[in-house]
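Risk mitigation, structural track. In case the binding assays with pyridoxal-5'-phosphate fail to produce interpretable data, a predicted complex structure has been prepared as a fallback.
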Amino acid sequence: MSDLSGGPSLPQERRVVTAIPGPKSQELAARKQRAVADGVGNVLPVYVKRAGGGVIEDVDGNSLIDFGSGIAVTSVGNSAEAVVRRATEQLADFTHTCFMVTPYESYVEVAEQLADLTPGDHDKKTALFNSGAEAVENAVKIARAYTGRQAVVVFDHGYHGRTNLTMALTSKSMPYKHGFGPFAPEVYRVPLAYPFRWLTGPDNCAEEAAAQAIDQITKQVGAANVAAIIIEPLLGEGGFIEPAKGFLPRIAEFAKENGIVFVADEIQSGFCRTGQWFACEDEGIVPDLITTAKGIAGGLPLAAVTGRAEIMDAAHAGGLGGTYGGNPVACAGALGAIETMRELDLNGKARRIEEVMKPRLRKMAEQYPVIGDIRGRGAMIAIELVRPGTKEPAADVTAALAKACHQAGLLILTTGTYGNVVRFLPPLVIGEDLLNEGLDILENALAELA
Ligand SMILES: *Cc1c(COP(=O)(O)O)cnc(C)c1O
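Fallback model:
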């Protein structure tokens, strides 16, 4: 484990030796308050000293179990050996030349790996960027260039980023969009097959939601005007919603019938997170374009659009890119992360995490009816909290539960349109003992709140 865990001296254990946050973190938080814009918040203001494997060690000597992975980024750990080695070597050779000026091999190699790993055996090409939002924006540019159309269709509860166009694509107002308009035009939002909250129940959810979505696209937008349909195959910020089985294939088929570019936003769900390289593989979907970021490079900033060569090539030379896009250190990190995922079979590890978590969560749900739904796949699992016996969102209980877990040394994140979802995103290299200890803490916190 030492090669994954932030150096051999970082013990894989939970340790709470001060209040959370401790005095040194509180001092730093006071400095942050004076120097950093309030719009940049912190979920848990413990200041990090080291992190790796399944723990985050803070400046006060506390060691927290990590069920967040920096929002699904450090799937291979926070300082995986292969990531550190390759990035360090690259740093010593050169930090930057700009791929658009004088290129280098690692960018090409990342593109080759993405062609290999993403679904479908058609010819594929890739363009690299710095952030997920940038990848999504570029997917839209590419789809518009290819189709000569303007409209973009997205779904209820979808999240695609914080830049102007991706704010328009994102569904939730507070905190992502509130006060930041006007938003980009030609974006249309249609219903999502959200089984837990579908009014007629989960059984006909896929069929009904797909029919409604397609009806709105054809009647309100006109299929012939649509450049792209963008969807997260397993929604992240919207609350780890798994679209009812059958919904994604129907929407993908509709896109194909109408010459619309089908874009899978796998920024959160990709790279072994759900127990597959990409979540859309679960229903055999082959997207035209796929956006990736987060887990791709072991914590270094990198994002990509990968897809059908003829679509990717529709944008004119010089139309895509950016100063830092596909930075060589980030590319080295990606090659190290992919190497780690293959070598340690992190898809298998993600599936094992699900096998450990789901039965324990089901037992908790029997005892604590505040848990209304358990869902997700692999190491992308969530519970949706409600007033017992109803589906009324219990955002207050969710916040209290997160706080209690944080105090006990377990980092968990909340999410969801209604703020009532606790999501679990442990690093895929977390030890099973830590995973179980984290679930013990969650269970205790539920008992205290009940
Ligand atoms: C995080 C996320 C984004 C935005 O990525 P950034 O790197 O934060 O810009 C886009 N789509 C999905 C599905 C995400 O989870």
